[in-house]
Amino acid sequence: MEEEESAAGAAPGPEADRDKQGGVGEKVSYSAALPDTELHKTGLNQGAVHGSGTLGTGIRVLKRNMKRNGSRSCVTPKSRFGSRERDWLKEDPQRGCVFLHGGGDPQLPCSSGPPSSSTSQSDLRLVLCTTNTTAAELCAQGNSEGLYLQLHGDLIRRLDPNERPLQIVYDYLAAMGFEDPFRIQNEAANSDLSCMMRFYSEKPCSADQLERILLKGVFSVRKGKTQLHKWAERQVILCGTCLIVASVKDSITGKMHILPLVGGKVEEVKRRQHCLMFSSAGPQGQTYFVNFDSLSDYQRWHRQASKVVSQTVSVVDLSCYSLEEVPECLFYSQDITHLNLRNNFMKPDRTGGLHSLNRFSQIKSLNLSHNRLGSFPESLCEILTLTELNLSCNGIRSLPAQIENLHSLQTLSLDGNHLSLLPEELGGLSQLSSLGLSFNNFSEVPAVLEMLSAVDRLAMAGNHLEMLDLGTLSRMSHFKHIDLRLNGLQAVVSGGVETLKHITHMDLRDNHLSVLDLSSACSLEQLHCQRNSLGALTLSGFALRALHTSANHLITVNIYPVPNQLTHLDLSRNLLAYLPDWVCDTRKIEVLDVSHNLLTELPGRLLSSLSLRKLLAGHNQLHSLPDLLDHIPLEALDLQHNKLGELPESLFYKALNLRYVNVSANSLETVPPSSQSEESLSALQELYLTSNNLNEQCAALLAGHQNLRVLHIAYNQLQSFPPSKLTKLELLEELNLSGNKLKTIPSTVANCKRLHTLIAHSNHISVFPEILNLPEIKLVDLSCNELTEILLPDSLPPALQELDLSGNTNLILEHKTLNIFSHIATLKLDQKPVMSAGESMGSSTLWNHGYSEMTGQKNKLCVSVLAVDSFGDSVEAAYGIFDGDRNEEVPRLLQCTMGDVLSEEIQHSSIDKVYMCNTFLSSHRKLGMAGQKLGASALLCYIQHDPGDPGSYFSLTLANVGTCQAVLCRDGQPLPLSKVFSLEQSAEETERVKLSKAIITEDNKVSGVTCCSRLLGCSYLSPWVLPKPWVRTEPLCAQDEFLILGNRALFERVSYQEAVCTVQAVRDPRAAAKKLCTLAQSYGCRDNVGAVVVSLHIGEESCTCELPLATAAGGGGGRIYPTAVPLGDPATPSTSSGIASEFNSEMSASEVGSEAGSIASDENPAAGLASRPERRCSLHPTVCGIGGFGGGGNNLGLFQRQPSCATFSSNQSDNGLDSDDEAPLDGVISNGSKLEVEVDIHCCAFRVKGGAPEGNGGQETVEEQRGFALRLSEDIGSCVTAGFGCRMRRQNSVVVAANGWLPSVSSKETSDLKKSPSTSSLFGKKLSNGSVVTVEESHNLIEVALEAPKKKTGYFAAPAQQDPEDQLVVPPGLERDVREQLRHPNPNPGPPPPQPAPTTGDPDWGHPHLNSQQQQQQLQQPWHDSALAIQQEVYDTAL
Fold first, then answer.
1. What is the mean pLDDT of residues 1022-1048?
2. In 884-932, where do the E strands start and end?
3. Is the pLDDT of residue 1430 over 90?
4. Distance between CA atoms of 1303 and 1366, rounded to whole angstroms?
5. At 47, is the secondary structure helix, strand, or coil?
6. What's the pLDDT tens digit per position in 487-522?
7. Quick check: 602 and 626 in contact, CB under 8 A?
8. Which helix (H) or strand (E) holds 98?
9. CA angle, 690 as apex, 685 and 692 as ends, to 5°?
10. pLDDT by residue (tens digit) across 614-662?
């Protein structure tokens, strides 16, 4: 069938209709390989460009014929531009590059898999232009009809001819937070930006068509009833209510013929077998004949099309379809009553545009919100049948007088516009009952509202009212609901009004009121006035039912008369020292919240109330509770964070309806009995007793609560739990016994068949409890105990998802146990530490960390942690925490990539605000399609020296977005470092969001999505939600003890002061982080909670400097710092991807966004031999340079980023050896072609083990010593040859410890192994998004990621040993010297590094299970000095 023009009456143009009525988009991917590159420089035909300026240098176009092979990354900067293009760009930051995609190149986040063979090969054009280049000029150069812009993979709009594409990109990047013009130019040329902003040379097909396709296939088709047209095979699609016929066989990228079927006909053609005739309705109806191949196809199409033809369409939803006009076929359906055109780009001058909507004769409801109209379409005033009209968020500044013609209008929504006045004609709409004026520019209540007698709700939230005159409201007696949230109200004046009888509901939240007197509102039923500055509140109690006054400064509340209808009262977070008398006198109160006040007692009458069901009185100063005199209906009681020494004796048998009790953080020494007799009627289901002084005798009293489901009794004085009492808690589901003195958990826990969570960390448990036979057990946390072995059943329960055994230093697991554990989704074990002598003097002396993540009552963990103790040159560190709220994808991606991004950014700039801000913005871009709809709060800390002063102390640079927070303990007091970007806590951010005309819902969320105003991700909420972070730099001193990082859930429940006191009381950072998370859960947190504790040991006492022996000739005078690298040709950073969190099984980061690739490279800069530097400590870094043999220059090198901690799971091992033919190695078990080892594989810098091997009791054989010396000499020699003599480490060496040492891989074999898919996992887990996740010992955990394939052959698989030709050879002369040095350590290798003495600002952060004598023995181990001597002497020999 030849190309034909569709009749205007039957099918609209492809620009407006194809992605709604037809067209199937395919997922398109690009390759980095660009075989054909052609540079064109063309002038512009100025006569063809209307109203456009001249472009002095013309438009340069680089055509890239992209091959689709599964990779979405486009091209590197070097392969993208030639030297002439780069020079041209560098001349002016107002020049740049625009990516132009073809129309057959839609971005489909939902589709997956490789593109089909029918997908057309579209080109990607890179157009060099300036910010003055218009869309018309680009269209004229490319011979295209228009230019289209897609934001965040969502809507696609046609650019006006005078719009400037490159300026749009630059404005978008500037709004994100980029400030430097050349950096903006560089970012605009990054292909990753296409996930946020993409230009098309023609309008692509919509992804929504895939969901609307009913039937499709390739059949013989003929158009028209005459014989003029021939039969031809074409693709035919039944989509929605239309029949779509492609103009090309097996393709839908050409012209689309769209036939509306509603009201038309589908008839059988008797003269031809298996043939149907499709006819459309209307005066210009068309006919298509389709001949099917089989009877089954014929019947299926006939049946489905007949349903479409016969249906009556009354409600049409065309929202989010990027339409500029309504499809022509819809105008033939006169039954349409509801038309939704929300989130489109409707134009008034198109054929089916706004001026044509009056053709719908029966339409009653019309939604045109979010259409960028700019003005009120006067043509809408001609649709007299309208009863509902929504024009929200359109930038409308005024209403026309013709609006009075809409006499039937009942609902008018004008929220999110720029209205400041209303016309008098609006008062003529007598039937108008709902009027939305929120988030406009009104400074007073419009007087015309007095005429709208049918409107009962004044919705004016988010305007600019500073004063409310009740006299004005008294004249508008039809208003019952008043919504004046977020207005900046400073006063409410009476205006001489004595009574306001009509107002029943009033919302005054988030204003600036200091005094509020609404005693004249005698009919007021509900009042919201949270988050003001109220010091006094006076109300009428005649009709009051609910009062919400939290987060104010109230000392008392005056209500007269007594509110006998009051059921809900919230007085939390105020300054109440006592409860008003009327609170006890009210008769119907059900919920009372007086938490976070200054109460010292609760009235006895309150607890005797016969209506009170929920009492929240936590965070006060209560010392006791009154006795209960009678049975009460109380169901929930929260008394946490008080000073209670005891509870009423009759509490549990007088309040028989109690189901929830939380008395954590008190001084309780006992709990009341559950009943007065042996038979208990307790209905208690949740009991929280954490952080009290309870002992095992109190635990026995809990047996009477046989309906108990959740029991938290952590951080008490329990030495045991009575086994017989635990047996009675058969319904128990969650048990938390952490932080006690338990040595064992009773075996009777096996009777709790419903138990799914057991948390008992930080005890003295030495025997693994019998819990793995429980059918529903999901989570077991026995970290920080004294476990030595585990006896397991033959199989684990299928529900077990997480097992934490970290912190058990004496735990030894057999290979059979590891094999069984390999099927657990999340497993945490201790690694065996491998610490070199150099690192013992480095960052590990200055800081160490611990972290904890807990899922709470969610099914997935949405919090991730980044923790790198040795970041960069081993005297830097990076820590971060990421909270995705309800998604786990974005936190995982940030965890994988943010360390790499920081490594690169600190090479571009040494200004803290610049590199931290750019780190966040670049990470935001790298989220790719995952960041379009999902987002996360993020916090990143970077500890480093001041580059301008090498002898200075350390400083901490912090950046954050969202609600993650950081607190520094200085002199025992909390010092908050972060800023919370929440609408409830930041008035500045709330005002910014209001000015951008976002709709803030009643739960204080931007567009009902998030309460945060700044996030990484959620780019579709731009410009309301931005990724630009808060940045702060704080110099560190000896008084700084530790740093705490936590997410929103942690600091909502644990205050800064309590967090600091908690960490001070615990010596181990990991145990401290565990305790913080446990406390948050016991205090009522049900969400994911995460915490990182970083112990700081920064002070002159930590100095381990040697006196300088001599200054190397020409050694230079400065420390190696990050050098400023031009953005146009960035230097290659080394790999660093810091991670400190296990992967959850539900969704891995590799399944989310392919755009979040690593920015790091494996290239190493070339350098000559370095002179031996003066050895100094981390507080006073060495002054060294990298030069040649002459030593005449001081060439600054690049930062070499230390590989960071990560998860590891090897899924294959192919070393080319048959394990059956090899001699078995000690500690290694052969299993077919794979080998299992007990420990992790460190893809990190070269390290010297800090203790003797366990297998021979500390005595090595001569062969083992020789092998170690040879490997040490090889590694150090490799370091010197590569120019890293001053650091003595090799980036990609591998050390495998398995009760001994295996030879480390040589540098040549390292590069070969990296290229091998089967062995690439040894050098870090390669994610599908391009990130390399490396392993570091500082995390001290072995964690299992379920995204790796499950293995039935063992927990780990690793190559057995090297080939014989890979063994290292040392000349015989050196071999004897090395052997003698190993046998007799040099007594004078240099002074050993003294151990730092604890300072006054440094608490005891030693091992929690070692006494002072054991710690002293550890410090005096001879092997530590021997390792230093070996390293020193072999280093000299290698030189």
1. 94
2. none
3. no
4. 10
5. helix
6. 999 999 987 778 889 999 999 999 999 999 999 999
7. yes
8. strand 95-101
9. 125
10. 999 999 999 999 988 888 999 999 999 999 999 999 999 899 999 999 9
Cα separation, 1271 vs 1266, in Å, equals 9
Per-residue pLDDT, 833: 58
H/E stretch holding 246 reads strand 242-248
Residue 750 tokens, joined: 């096996």
Rounded Cα distance, 1333 and 771, in Å: 34
Dump the DSSP string for 544-610. --EEE--SS--S-EEEES--TT--EEE--SS--SS--HHHHH-SS--EEE--SS------HHHHT-S
Q: According to the model, what pLDDT value does residue 46 have?
A: 35
Q: Smallest Cα–Cα separation from 1274: which of 1256, 1294, 1259?
A: 1294
1249 touches 1268 (CB < 8 A): no
CB 392 within 8 Å of CB 368: no
Structure letter (DSSP) for residue 203:
P
User: Residue 1104 corresponds to which tokens in the numbers above?
Assistant: 């381990």
Give yes or no for residue 1345 having a pLDDT over 60.
no
CA atoms in the 13 A half-sphere facing the CB of 162? 2
The two three-digit tokens of residue 977, written as one number: 């470092």
Could you tell me the two tokens for 442? 């009104």
Question: What percent of the chain clears pLDDT 70, i.e. is strictly above it?
Answer: 66
Task: State how far Cα 819 lies from the chain centre.
Answer: 33
The Cβ-side half-sphere exposure at 1427, using a 13 Å CA radius, reads 20
Taken in order 1296, 1301, 1305, 1307, the sign of the CA dihedral is positive
In which element (H, E) is residue 1308 found? helix 1307-1315
What is d(CA 786, CA 792) in angstroms, rounded to the nearest whole number?
Answer: 17
Give Rg (Cα) of the chain: 36
* 155-205 confidence digits (pLDDT tens): 899 999 999 999 999 999 999 999 999 999 999 998 889 899 999 988 876
- Which range in 70-79, 880-889, 1185-1194 is most confidently predicted, on average pLDDT? 880-889
Residue type, 498: E
Amino acid at 134: T
Per-residue model confidence (pLDDT) at position 949: 66
Q: How far is CA 1282 from the centre of its chain?
A: 39
Whether the per-residue pLDDT at 437 is higher than 90: the answer is yes
Residue 944 has which token pair?
């480093």
For residue 863, the cross-strand partners are 883
**Six token digits for residue 492:** 């409410």
Q: Please say whether the beta carbons of 837 and 1424 come within 8 A.
A: yes
Q: 3-state DSSP call for residue 914? A: helix
Residue 882 CA to residue 829 CA, distance in Å, equals: 23
**Do residues 1426 and 1251 touch, judged by C-beta distance below 8 A?**
no
Name the packing angle between helices 1372-1383 and 1422-1438 (round to 10°). Answer: 160
Each residue of 1210-1249: b (16+ CB within 10 Å) or e? bebbebebebeeeeebebbbbbebbbbbbbbbbbbbbbbb
The region of weakest confidence among 284-293, 539-548, 829-838 is 829-838
Structure confidence at residue 202 (pLDDT): 85
DSSP code, position 1273: H
- Please check the confidence at residue 822 and state whether its pLDDT lies above 50: yes
Q: Give the tokens for residue 800.
A: 């077990």
957: three-class secondary structure by DSSP: strand
Tell me what the mean pLDDT of segment 296-313 comes to. 84
The model carries a pTM of 0.73
Pairwise CA distance, residues 1421 & 640, whole Å:
47
Distance CA 1354, CA 829 (A): 16
Burial group, residue 411, by CB count within 10 angstroms (0-12, 13-18, 19+): middle
Tell me if 765 sits within 8 A of 743, measured CB to CB: yes
Query: What's the chain's average pLDDT?
Result: 74
Closest CA to 1062 of 1149, 990, 969: 969
Rounded to whole angstroms, how far apart are CA atoms 1215 and 1223?
15
How many CB atoms lie under 10 A from the CB of residue 382? 14
Contact 1183, 1117 (CB under 8 A): yes
Contact 616, 593 (CB under 8 A): yes
